[in-house]
Amino acid sequence: MSWNIGEAKQQFSEVVRLSAEAPQLIYNRDRCVATVVDAATFKAFEEWRKETSKKTLGEEFAELRQIAAEENYELPTLPRSEVGRPNAFIEMLEEEMADHARAA
Predict the structure, then answer these.
(1) Most CB atoms within 10 A, among 5, 51, 82, 91?
(2) 16 contact partners, CB below 8 Å, separation of at least 6
(3) CA angle 23, 27, 32 (to 5 degrees)
(4) pLDDT tens digits along 11-52
(5) What's the structural domain count of the chain?
(6) CB-based burial of residue 8 (10 Å sphere; 0-12 exposed, 13-18 middle, 19+ buried)?
(7) pLDDT at residue 80 in the model
(8) Do the beta carbons of residue 12 and residue 20 sit within 8 Å?
(9) Are 23 and 41 in contact, with CB atoms under 8 Å apart?
(10) Domain span including residue 87
(11) Same structural domain for residues 66 and 44?
(12) 42: part of which helix (H) or strand (E)?
């Protein structure tokens, strides 16, 4: 059922009672501004939202580090040069240093 905001205020107990059967939509000037739902539906929504919320990259790495620590697993890391991937930043710095050395 839907209510305008004035009706919802006047009949709040009825709105809450009916929310056990179905969500109660509350409108203000033909625009839905709120929905009253029963507590179980809201709890289920909160659980769903927590499960589906996206983790940040930092949170994902923290979880990976935690799992690795629990499993006594050390994540292998190799220098870029050993895996055939040059470090562009270091190359740029070396070029700048060479340019400064030639200019001096």
Answers:
(1) 5
(2) 36
(3) 70
(4) 999 999 999 999 999 999 999 999 999 999 999 999 988 888
(5) 2
(6) buried
(7) 66
(8) no
(9) yes
(10) 54-103
(11) no
(12) helix 39-52
